[in-house]
């Protein structure tokens, strides 16, 4: 495959190859000398038209650990502010001999549009409410480290499913790997017909916690909602928040995950986010190895 536009377009075999490659890179980046020469002579542009902390830094580190030349572009400080189009922006950057583009963009499908017009490899680092494929890959890789083969394992994605690209990419990735997936949140934040993607729907947090091996907790994406979530964030926290009292009442440990950024005290309490059951920072650590694997495999196909 030339691009990574979404998990929708990857096979289970592609995903397993990415995980095997990521395992090797995880070993590499835990050595005192973290760098390998695999992407020497490859130039990567990280184009961020939306804010990011984890994904932007993780891609930049992954590229540098692979010895790529890296340029970073942030729309907020660019000529996009003077009205330059996406295609003009990207073509101007590619004219400087860039081989691969990592892009985050608020418009769902922006990467598909770009793929029809440019020759470079494209990796989707998040397109609006659509997909965030490398987040789903690092999530599933981290789950597999905790519970082994995901076939038959039960994963609940809690929270704002409607506005979340992480939810959609997780659903594609986990169902391709044979996991049983449930989404849980208020009816207003769950898309209609989501069952057609092979997931269960629940509005009952307690029942979903009892059902699952792994809870992937997502935040309320207020920035993507034209009408504010009703009822209030305080009520969301009361009825759908994951807190220690709930987890202590379970008769089994479950793995707690969150892609970040966390709204502490809303979808997850601090004592859960920071507990021994939480692998939130392991997810971030694995993000570098998984992104190295994606970059390496795409570059190898050039
Ligand atoms: N998980 C994630 O995409 O975080 P950032 O928005 O900080 O990149």
UniProtKB/TrEMBL annotation:
Involved pathway(s): Pyrimidine metabolism; UMP biosynthesis via de novo pathway; (S)-dihydroorotate from bicarbonate: step 2/3
GO annotation terms (biological process): 'de novo' pyrimidine nucleobase biosynthetic process; 'de novo' UMP biosynthetic process; amino acid metabolic process
Gene3D superfamilies assigned to the protein according to its UniProt record, in alphabetical order: Aspartate/ornithine carbamoyltransferase (3.40.50.1370)
PROSITE patterns named among the record's database cross-references: CARBAMOYLTRANSFERASE
Domain of life: Bacteria
Enzymatic class: transferase
A Pfam family this chain is assigned to: OTCace_N
InterPro entries xrefs: Asp/Orn_carbamoyltranf_P-bd, Asp/Orn_carbamoylTrfase, Asp/Orn_carbamoylTrfase_sf, Asp_carbamoyltransf, Asp_carbamoyltransf_Asp/Orn-bd
Positions bound to carbamoyl phosphate: 54-55, 104, 132, 135, 260-261
Keyword Transferase attached: yes
Catalysis performed (reactions): carbamoyl phosphate + L-aspartate = N-carbamoyl-L-aspartate + phosphate + H(+)
Sequence positions that bind L-aspartate: 82, 165, 219
GO cellular component: cytosol
A Gene Ontology molecular function term of the record: aspartate carbamoyltransferase activity
UniProt domain Aspartate/ornithine carbamoyltransferase Asp/Orn-binding: residue ranges: 152-298
EC number: 2.1.3.2
Function as written in the Swiss-Prot or TrEMBL entry: Catalyzes the condensation of carbamoyl phosphate and aspartate to form carbamoyl aspartate and inorganic phosphate, the committed step in the de novo pyrimidine nucleotide biosynthesis pathway.
PANTHER family for this protein: ASPARTATE CARBAMOYLTRANSFERASE (PTHR45753:SF6), ORNITHINE CARBAMOYLTRANSFERASE, MITOCHONDRIAL (PTHR45753)
Cited NCBIfam families: asp_carb_tr, PRK00856.1
Oligomeric and partner information: Heterododecamer (2C3:3R2) of six catalytic PyrB chains organized as two trimers (C3), and six regulatory PyrI chains organized as three dimers (R2).
Protein family according to the UniProt entry: Belongs to the aspartate/ornithine carbamoyltransferase superfamily. ATCase family.
UniProt name for this protein: Aspartate carbamoyltransferase
Lineage of producing organism: Bacteria, Pseudomonadati, Bacteroidota, Saprospiria, Saprospirales
């Amino acid at each position: 495959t030339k691009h990574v536009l979404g998990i929708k377009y990857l096979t289970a075999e592609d995903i397993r190859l990415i995980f095997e490659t990521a395992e090797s890179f995880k070993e590499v980046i835990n050595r005192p000398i973290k760098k390998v020469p695999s992407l020497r002579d490859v130039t990567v542009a990280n184009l961020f038209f939306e804010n990011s902390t984890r994904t932007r830094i993780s891609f930049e580190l992954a590229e540098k650990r692979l010895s790529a030349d890296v340029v970073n572009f942030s729309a907020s400080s660019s000529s996009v502010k003077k009205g330059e189009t996406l295609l003009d922006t990207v073509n101007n950057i590619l004219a400087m001999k860039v081989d691969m583009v990592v892009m985050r963009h608020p418009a769902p499908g922006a990467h598909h549009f770009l793929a029809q017009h440019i020759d470079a490899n494209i990796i989707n680092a998040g397109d609006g409410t659509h997909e965030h494929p490398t987040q789903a890959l690092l999530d599933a890789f981290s789950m597999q480290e905790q519970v082994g083969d995901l076939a038959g394992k039960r994963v609940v994605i809690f929270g704002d499913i409607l506005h979340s690209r992480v939810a959609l990419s997780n659903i594609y990735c986990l169902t391709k790997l044979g996991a049983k997936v449930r989404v849980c949140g208020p009816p207003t934040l769950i898309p209609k017909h989501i069952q057609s993607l092979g997931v269960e729907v629940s509005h009952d947090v307690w029942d979903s916690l009892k059902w699952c091996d792994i809870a992937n907790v997502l935040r309320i994406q207020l920035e993507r909602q034209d009408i504010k979530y009703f009822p209030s964030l305080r009520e969301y926290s009361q009825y759908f928040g994951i807190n220690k009292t709930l987890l202590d009442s379970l008769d089994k440990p479950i793995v707690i995950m969150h892609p970040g950024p966390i709204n502490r005290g809303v979808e997850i309490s601090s004592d859960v986010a920071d507990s021994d059951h939480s692998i939130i920072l392991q997810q971030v650590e694995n993000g570098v190895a998984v992104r190295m694997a994606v970059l390496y495999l795409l570059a190898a196909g050039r």
